[in-house]
Every structure is written in structure tokens, then in C-alpha cells.
Amino acid sequence: MAVLPDPTSSPALKEHLLHFYESDVSLLDAMSAFIGAGLRASETCFLFATQAHHESLQERLKENGIDVLAAQERGEYRWFDAAEMLSKLMLDDMPESERFAREVGDLIAQATSGQRHVRIFGEMVALLWEQGNFNAVTRLEELWNDLYHRLNAFSLFCAYPMHSFSGQAHAAQFLEIIRLHSHLIPAGVSSLLIDPDEQLQAIALLQRKTYSLEAEIEQREEVEQRLRVSEEALYRLAAIVESSDDAIVSKTLDGIITSWNASAERLFGYSAEEAVGRHITLIIPPELYPEEDEILRKLRQGERIKHYETVRVRKDGRRVDVSLSISPVKDRNGKIIGGSKIARDIGERRELERRKDEFIAMASHELKTPVTSLKGFTQLLQRRLRNSGNEEELRFLTRMDAQVNRLTHLVDDLLNLTKMQTGKLEYRMEAFDLAELVQEIVENVQEATQTHRLLLEKTVVASVYGDRDRIGQVLTNLLTNAIKYSKDADRVIIRMEVSEGNVIVSVQDFGIGIPQEYQQRIFERFFRVSETGGTTYSGLGIGLYISRNIIKRHQGKLGVQSRKGEGSTFFFQLPLAQTADVRVEEGD
Ligand code: ADP
User: Is pLDDT of 537 > 60?
Assistant: First the structure.
């Protein structure tokens, strides 16, 4: 689209002009300039206009010294009532091409025959626009354009009242109309008559308006595109939530259920219709209501809860074991408005665990008797061989005895684990001297190892109240681990110290160390670090689990400080029985 300087000046000018007029006066200025120039050049002029515009134009032309009646008689001024002509062109609310060709096309073709130039003023499109039939407007403009390209012998001037375009709402149509024309004649100025400089200014203004409109449209299209993308993402997300195998439920900060997916229906037995709008206590066993208060409190503080294992209750009253992960839901301003929770049915896992525990209990129980009997016969044989002085057999038997001891430890660990699970592990509580016990255990373990020196660097004579054998078991476990996981080192350091009413025993090795991410997990049942630099270490992964439980039963703590590749320091802390009876002794 370009803008013409003055389309009235050249009689041979062939254009499809567009004019948005703000008042009838400005329209008449433009019409009389366009048609007047045609009549003066003896061109045929067609008017598809309203009766009122036709009459006003006649008067204006007369004022300008043009004999309209004579022109009419010569067939050079031909008026057609716009509404009437339009009604002949329309079929089902759309201008129809054959009718257009018959009613308008033939007429214009005749007038242009012999390469005579013709001028046409039309406002049928303006009538269609005012009726709100935008599709018909573009169709009619296209029909005019086709004719225009076919005959290539007329100028066509279309006029639209500016007031019927209400800014932003019609911006896209406005631009489309402009696109359908070859030139735009600015509105609001008697554009065809005034000074060219002013015209240029007006044109520039209009172009600026057009550009800003185009930019707005682009922006709007971009926003719409983004909205479409977000909408698609939402649909996709909704589909994922709906098809998830986990129950996904969201609720407000007051605990009112706001969404409930298909898996929630399967797991808890309530349909979405039954659950949404109800309070979340619908699925919480009454004795666990305080737990929900705590969950809501954490949500309000923006905290997440991960893999929390608990129990929920189904519609039929059955209990289900679930693992919950709960995250706060925020609105667009970051304000917490509720929570969404994923509940995984862990009933099957729990059942498997139960069967595994049962198996371990049974197997270790069954193993205990033959291992005890092996131990008894080994000792008996050892005595006999010692008496008969049979040194070589005795050496073999001693090695066999060491293996039987390992086996006994393993079976004992498994039995202890089972008892711990069922709460049947017995403790014989008494006050005893921890330093003495540490000394004794260090000596025992040293006796069985040739590879490492166990250095008891510092002892504290301190009395603790607890099960001496079980505390001994913990220290034995820490020492054997320290030796086992430091194959390239030759020493282990043991220290005791007292701090704030507690006694702390630490065991430091210079071995493979434990990567940071596993330093808590090694205390879990059956957990073993797999990254051990290619070396395989024997073990079941239950020693530390049992040890931590034993120390917990004594109101103490078991922990570790370690760096991968540099070694580890395991320590346990127990409350002192009598803080008065403390004496520090330095070791070698
Ligand atoms: P295990 O029978 O496997 O030694 P534990 O429960 O005693 O079982 O230890 C659990 C895991 O912790 C071990 O498998 C090992 O990966 C790691 N671990 C324990 N002690 C040490 C240590 N002193 N140095 C390095 N890793 C250790």
C-alpha cells in the first residue's frame, strides 16, 4: 500500500483508492474532486452511492461550474443507488461473483471499451461494513479488484465512514481493508484539494497510526500465541496428572480438597465428585488428625514434605499404607494458597518387607543351632589337638575357628536385627566403666588382626549406665569396619573424651572414606556404599543400623565425619552416669 499525492490530477490514473472520511463535508470534498476531474476530462463516471451523497455531489459539482445534467444526458455521469445495487449482488449475505459480473462488471466493461478511462465512486462496501458483514466487505473489495485487474482501465474510489471503526476492536479489519486497496487517501483533510505539504504531514500521521496499530496487533498475536502455548501445557499437565499411577490430590490451606485424580479414586475409593469440596480428614484415620495439622503448618511455611510414610483410610474403612510427598501450591504472586500431595500405595512394598523380615528371622534362627554346634566341636577338637601336640592340624583348626566366629557374628547380627524389628531385643542395664570396656574390646579386636595397629590414644574413666555387651558390640563393629575399609592403611586411632555430661568414643581410620551423599544413608538397614573403587567388601549392611539403634536406646548418638579417599571417624556419645567420677589418662 502506498499513498498517492493527488489521484485527481491524471485522467489516465488507474488505482483502487481508499478514503476514510470523518464527515460528509470531507467526503463531498473528496468526491467532487475525484468525479469533477473525471467529468472535466470527459471520462465516464459511475457513482454507486446513497441518494443523499448523489444529490449533494450534484449540487457541489454545479457550484464548481460543471453541468451535471448535460453529463448525465451524455451518459458520462451515471448514478446507481448503492443499497439497491447491493441487494442485486447479494446471495446468502455474500456478494456473488456472477451477479457482480452481470450487474456491475458488464456495465464497466462496456464503458471502458476502446480504452476509455472510467472513474467509479463506490460506497456499497461501506454499507456492508455498517451492517457488520465484514466477510462481505472483503469479498466485494476482491471482486472489484478482480475486475480492476481484468479491465485495467478505471480508477475506483471507495469511501468508508471513519466513525464506524472503533479503534482497537476493529484494528485487524481496518488493516485488512487497507491491504485490499492500492492507495490510501488520508482522512480528516480535504486531501485531494489542500496543500501537498499538509497532505504529506497528514499522510505521515496516518502511517504512524497504521504502524502502531500493526505493532499492537503483533503484540496481541504474540500474547495470544503465548496463551495458546500455556493452555496446551496446562492440558498436557492435566493429562499427566490424570494418567498418573500415584494418587494426586490438592487442597486449600484449610484442608479442603480441590482436586482428585483417577488414581486417588482407585486408592481411596471416593470419586472426584464425592471428595472435592470435602475436608482432607475424609481419608485420615482419626488418631492421625494431629499429623494433618502438622502437615498444614509446614505447608503454610512453604516447606515440602518428602516420602513421608503413614496410613490413610479408604471409603470402605480399610487402612492403606502410603508414602506422601507434599508441596505447597503458590499463586502467580508467590503467595501460598494450598498444597498438592502425591500419595503412593506402599502396601505391596510393606508386605514384601514383612515377608523378607520373616524369612531373615527364620533363616537366622535355623542357622544359629548348627553354627553353635560347629563352634562347640571346633573348641573340643582344638583342646584335643593341643594336648596331642599336633601343630599343623591345630593351625588349620584355628583358621576354621576364626571363620566360625565370623559366621556366628553374622547370624547374631541377623537375629539381633529381627529382634530389634519386633521390639524383642533385650537390654541388661547396669552402671559400668566405659574405659575398661573400650580397653577390653580394643585388645580383643587387636588379637584378631595382623594388618593394623589399634592405637588407644586417649581414655577417660567414665561410668555409663547401659548394656555393656551391646555397647561392646557397637565398638567391635566400628573397629572391624575401620580395619575392613582401610586395606591400604596400618593403623586405627581410638579416642575417648568427655563433653557436657557425655562421653564420646571415636574411631578414626585412614581408608576409603564415605562420599558426603551416603553419610546418613549408611545407617539405614541393608544400605551399603556401592562406589568402593572396584574392591568388593564382605558384609550385609546391617552393622551400623543395629549400632545406631543400640546407641539410641541409651539416649546417645552415633555419627560419622568422613571424606572420600581420606578416611572416616565414627563416634558414639553416651550420657555419663556419674560425671564426678571422671579421670583423664593419656595413652601412647
Ligand atoms: P557392612 O556389613 O556392609 O560393613 P555396616 O552397616 O557396618 O555394614 O556399614 C554400612 C556401609 O557403610 C558399608 O557397607 C560401607 O559402605 C560403609 N562403611 C561403614 N564403615 C565404613 C568405614 N569405616 N569406611 C568406609 N565406609 C564405611
Answer: yes
Handedness of CA 508, 512, 517, 522 (dihedral sign): negative
pLDDT of residue 240: 80
> Hunting for cell 480492476 — which residue is that?
148
Answer whether 543 contacts ligand 1 (Cβ < 6 A): yes
- Please identify, by atom number, the ligand 1 atom nearest to the C-alpha of residue 485: 24
Q: What are the helix and strand counts (H, E) for the chain? A: 18, 21
Task: Report how far residue 330's alpha carbon sits from residue 342's, in angstroms, rounded to the nearest whole number.
Answer: 17
Atom of ligand 1 nearest to the CA of 544: 6
Q: Using alpha carbons, list the distances in angstroms from residue 130 to 79, 83, 123, 166.
A: 21, 12, 11, 12
Instruction: Please tell me the distance from the alpha carbon of residue 344 to that of residue 327, in angstroms, as a whole number.
Output: 15
pLDDT at res. 331: 85
User: Is the distance from the beta carbon of residue 551 to the nearest atom of ligand 1 less than 6 Å?
Assistant: no
27 band by pLDDT with thresholds 50, 70 and 90: confident
Residue bearing cell 548348627 = 370
From residue 409, alpha-carbon distances to 365, 377, 471, 502 in Å are: 13, 17, 15, 29
The best mutation among 407, 522, 527 to test binding of ligand 1, ranked by most ligand atoms within 8 Å of the C-beta, falls on 522
The four Cα atoms 416, 418, 419, 422 give a dihedral, to 10 degrees, of 160
Q: Flag whether pLDDT at 586 surpasses 60.
A: no
Residues 6+ apart with CB under 8 A from 94: 135, 136, 139
How confident is the model over 561-580, as a mean pLDDT? 89
C-alpha cell at 396: 588349620
| Nearest CA, atom 3, ligand 1 | 541
Dist. CA 394–CA 382, nearest whole Å? 6
Considering only CA atoms, which of 89, 62, 156, 153 is closest in space to residue 116?
153
Mean pLDDT of the chain: 86
Q: How far is the CA of 559 from the centre of ligand 1 (A)?
A: 12
What angle separates helix 543-553 from helix 391-421, to the nearest 10 degrees? Answer: 60
Percent pLDDT > 70 in the chain is: 90
Q: Look up residue 215 and give its three cell numbers.
A: 505493532
- Taking the model in full, what pTM does it have? 0.53
- Quote the CA–CA distance of 282 and 314 in Å, as a whole number: 9
pLDDT digits (tens, 9 = 90+) for 43-83: 999 999 999 999 999 999 999 899 999 999 999 999 999 99
Q: Is 398 left (phi over 0), alpha (psi -120 to 50) or beta?
A: alpha
Q: What is the distance between the alpha carbons of residues 586 and 588, in angstroms, rounded to a whole number?
A: 7
Give the pLDDT band (50/70/90) at residue 201. Answer: low
Distance CA 543, CA 478 (A): 9
Alpha helix stretches (DSSP H) within 259-346: 262-268, 272-275, 289-300
Q: 258 C-alpha vs ligand 1 centroid, how far in Å?
A: 46
